[in-house]
Amino acid sequence: MEDTPAAAPSAPAASLSSETGASPGHGGKLRLDALSAFYGPKKAIDSVSLDFPAKTVTAIIGPSGCGKSTLIRCLNRMHEVTPRATVTGHAILDGEDLYEMDATLVRRRIGMVFQKPNPFPTMSVYDNVAAGLKLNGERNRARLDEAVIRSLKGAALWDEVKDNIHGPGVRLSGGQQQRLCIARALAVEPEVLLMDEPCSALDPIATAKIEQLIRTLKEKYTVIIVTHNMQQAARVAEFTAFLYLGKLIEFGPTGDMFERPKEKLTEEYITGRFG
Amino acid sequence: MNEGTGAPAMRPIDAEIAKLTQDIDGMGRWAVEMVRGGVQAMETGDPAIANEVRGRDDKLDAFDMEIEQEAIRILAMRQPAAHDVRVLGAAIKLITYVDRIGRLGLDIAFYAIDDPGAPHLAPWPLLRTMAEKATAMVELALDAFVHRDLAKASRVFDADDEVDELNRQVLKECVKVLDGDPPEPRELLTYVLVSRHLERVADNACKIAEKTIYMETGKRRREFLTPEKKVVL
């Protein structure tokens, strides 16, 4: 049989260490450097360092209570809204420390979509999407119209709501409501989109639509998605981070993570041996 | 609930993979007997033994189809990852290698049927040794797979070098005999073919060992090669 000598191991596409910089082929959009998060004295995130490559989807997986949601709430400074919650370390967006920026500006640049669709209940589809822009002082009707249409198209919802855009947002189906929330997040033109289990309340068809949308969104945005569904991570994310007890156990290309994880804990989690 | 540090929890897929592993082992032993039967048929010139090998072919096919079906079912139902998915990937590949091994044995049996009772010429003992080593390699590779034993997998490659050397010796001996204008040149052509078949049996054993290495480590065999092209695990 023909043998070839061992090739030098290739560099990992993404790294646990912030010191290694961005992964090849993708600029590091958002970088965490020894980020820890606390609820009072309790440490929920323990010195996490990693790069989120630009215009890719990164999934964060891990068992309940491992700190997934806390971590992404640190990324748009939602964590600090909780009483007695604190953060140490750094989260760097394009070279700027998020914690030295104005929190409102951070939330405009880093949008978030939550687990349960939460359209503003008294508002129309149009007003739900325009709400963020109006809060930022936009009053020009033409610009608002343009932004609403662009955002609804970006969220793959336009064709389904264009004939009743002034109807109530809460009349939409669950999947449509979630895409409405995505449109609302897109309206303020964020650079990073955080999604906290965006499909957990949806049926498989609505989930498939959101997943298709996520794959489209990465052409323009850096997407970070928390998910309990490992098949979903495998379907949508180029990179996956596995958190356990607040620590980052492993981070790498999703294919490698699911086929040959480096860490025993990752192996045990993704093969359903615990969690 | 196991929290990741205690004894691994038993999952439905564990029993399914254990059964699949057992079935592949059974298919492998079945195929090895086909090779041994083919060589024995040549050795004895007994067409009954050759026909018995032919009769094993249907069950070899059945093993192939049933194991493949079960592996696909587990993939669809359990959506495995990590070691589990590597085992299933290996299983689907292994049955192809094992099927080829069985068919090589079948071909050897057909040579015995085509030329029953042919006298044995000088290179025959080398072929017999080759057959012993090649079939032992398959058994070793199957053991490595069944017991997830990397040391055994690595020994398969060492044995392959010996079979390759025997193959070269058989060819050399056949040429030597042919140069002496033997009364049965056709028999020597069969020897060359059988030698090639046994070398292929050994190669398929190496493929089984290769897949076992990937299954267990997530790394390819070439990643364990020394500059001398030895596999060190």
Structural notes for this entry:
The complex is a heterodimer of chains A (275) and B (233). Chain A contains ten helices and ten strands. Chain A is α/β, with parallel strands linked by helices and 275 residues long. In chain A, the strands form two sheets. A six-stranded mixed sheet of chain A has the order 6-7-8-3-9-10, sandwiched between helices. Chain A has a four-stranded antiparallel sheet with strand order 2-1-4-5, with helices on one face. The longest helix of chain A has 14 residues, at 141-154. The radius of gyration of chain A is 19 Å and the shape is globular. The termini of chain A are far apart. Chain B has 233 residues and is mainly alpha-helical. Chain B has a single domain (12-224), classed as Methane Monooxygenase Hydroxylase, Chain G, domain 1. Chain B contains seven helices and no strands. The radius of gyration of chain B is 20 Å and the shape is flat. In chain B, 42% of the residues are buried. Chain B has helices spanning 12-44, 47-55, 57-78, 82-114, 124-146, 150-179, 185-217. Classes of the chains: A alpha/beta (275), B mainly alpha (233). Chains A and B meet through helix 8 and helix 10 of A and helix 4 of B.
Helix vs. strand class of chain A? alpha/beta
User: What is the average per-residue confidence, as pLDDT of chain B, rounded to a whole number?
Assistant: 92
Helix and strand succession of chain A? EEEHEEHEHHHHEHEHEEHH
Low-pLDDT segments, ≥5 res of chain A:
1-25
Low-pLDDT sequence parts of chain B: none
By DSSP (H or I, 4+ residues per run), the number of helices of chain A equals 10
Elements of chain B, N to C (H/E): HHHHHHH
Query: Could you say which structural class the secondary elements and strand pairing of chain B correspond to?
Result: mainly alpha
Global outline of chain A: globular
Shape of chain B: flat
- Note the gap between the termini of chain A: 44 Å
Q: Biggest chain pair contact, residues each?
A: A-B, 26 and 27 residues
Number of strands of chain A: 10
